[in-house]
Amino acid sequence: MGSAGDAFKLKAHPKLPKDKIIALVVLDGWGEATPDQYNCIHVAETPTMDSLKQGAPDRWRLVKAHGKAVGLPTDDDMGNSEVGHNALGAGRIYAQGAQLVDQALESGKIYDGEGFNYIKQSFATNTLHLIGLMSDGGVHSRLDQVQLLLKGAAEHGAKKIRVHVLTDGRDVLDGSSVGFAETLENDLAKLREKGIDAQVASGGGRMYVSMDRYENDWGVIKRGWDAQVLGEAPHKFKNVVEAIKTLREEQQPKADDQFLPPFVIVDEQGKAVGPVVDGDAVVTFNFRADRMVMLAKALEYEDFDKFDRVRFPKIRYAGMLQYDGELKLPSHYLVSPPEIERTSGEFLVHNGVRTFACSETVKFGHVTFFWNGNRSGYFKEDMEEYVEIPSDSGISFNVKPKMKALEIGEKARDAILSRKFHQIRVNIPNSDMVGHTGDIEATVVSCKAADEAVKMIFDAIEQVGGIYVVTADHGNAEDMVKRNKKGEPQLDKNGNIQILTSHTLQPVPIAIGGPGLAPGVRFRKDLPGGGLANVAATVMNLHGLEAPSDYEPSLIEVVDN
Ligand SMILES: O=C(O)[C@H](O)COP(=O)(O)O
Ligand SMILES: [Mn+2]
Ligand SMILES: [Mn+2]
């Protein structure tokens, strides 16, 4: 009888040795683009990352990090951390949440599923609440899916619907939330014409209300809870468009879409139109997991001590997807998530590869939870150590653009020098987190800090005779301006350039090196279309192992010198 681990045994690589110490560095939001003044990576002093380019084509190349290469519906979809780290860790391309929800809506299967049937039981007597990110960013949610869901829910018996919106400005241009709110209002008006009592009930900016992640700041979830569930917020308006316009103009200090304060919509008597009460149904319509897990816990867990909920209504709650496969959270969901199994992390621990993973809070789950296929916890506790460095909370990261890069570098260095681990995996968040603020100067500083952290890790790898693999999960800081079809910066109606706070469609670099890298190792020339999903097999090879046959092929070959 074999043990459970036997199913994970991998063959030894015919040419590459085991037991090398490998640093696997993911620079978050670090793409490759035209070197101009809006390319913060180009503008910043980044000698370490720059020097790697000289290794091209054998030890430096580009890989795809967006669209179909990472399981998104189309090649117009920019990459993001969830799909990027899923692909990096799983070594295969899965149809991701965005696509699965599209399919379920198009076929109508979403309305036959367990999740919808569960919430439907509330429709005859109670309200259906939809909570989520209102944009067409396609990273956490998409407004066209919400529009279909509204229509479908009405057709399937929902009589009273309340939408709780979170404004974006991070995956889409700042200021675009007004247009999305108008679109939504139009749809709700059409439902009202059909006799359905449908309205927006509350709102707030995603980074200030409801969409925190990895437990960095429960205050964010509480602000959302107060507005959405209790119907209480510092700002009250008659409708959502007026709310967003007014708050954008009048809020001091100035608030953009990402940081709008919470508001509720009130009736003529000043009463909130849509608090959540016993018997109601609630759907969180984001398909992406990380920024919904905390809210899902607040909505679902009877035992909960993260903040005072004041009231804990008995509701029927479903996520658009199940957000955490290990916690089975939430227990009801409208669409089944991608079944990401047999990830590289699980294989490696069953093949003697001791693993260390580290980032700061805001990206900690990227190199653990996302890396392991949206699964929290360890595969084998005695083989793994995950270290989280607390992030600053309650600030926008342009204020502290170095973030915890050097602390991450130090932790990785110590783990490398301890020689206790074979794989030291880190995510360095700076170029992404500061890129999202749209502050070009701060983003330049952030890229420099990330480069310094990489240097610390390389120095340690040098000392232990190890190998490094450096890559990124998608682009961001390499292009900070919205461009027209010719690639020129696009101007708004006042003649100002339109700052791009979002990710990009750019490819990302991957570089290999270090004293432990066998001399004959080089990137293959026959995989020009390679993407992030090819990295897992590559890393397995460098650990001296053959990758499973269903993994996307390794990017490297070993030639006799
Ligand atoms: O959640 C976010 O911060 C953005 O929507 C996407 O950024 P990420 O994919 O890099 O986390
Ligand atoms: Mn990312
Ligand atoms: Mn990002």
From TrEMBL:
Known EC number: 5.4.2.12
Single GO cellular component term: cytoplasm
Keywords: Cytoplasm, Glycolysis, Isomerase, Manganese, Metal-binding
Active-site residue list: 81
Subcellular location: Cytoplasm
Alphabetized InterPro entries for the sequence: Alkaline_phosphatase_core_sf, BPG-indep_PGM_N, Metalloenzyme, PGAM_B_sf, Pgm_bpd_ind
Residue numbers binding Mn(2+) 2: 28, 81, 473-474
Domain BPG-independent PGAM N-terminal, chain residue ranges per copy: 101-324
EC supergroup of this enzyme: isomerase
GO biological process: glucose catabolic process; glycolytic process; response to blue light; response to carbon dioxide; stomatal movement
Cofactor(s) the protein requires to work: Mn(2+)
CDD domains xref list: iPGM (cd16010)
NCBIfam families: pgm_bpd_ind
Family indicated by similarity: Belongs to the BPG-independent phosphoglycerate mutase family.
Protein name as annotated: phosphoglycerate mutase (2,3-diphosphoglycerate-independent)
Organism lineage: Eukaryota, Viridiplantae, Streptophyta, Embryophyta, Tracheophyta
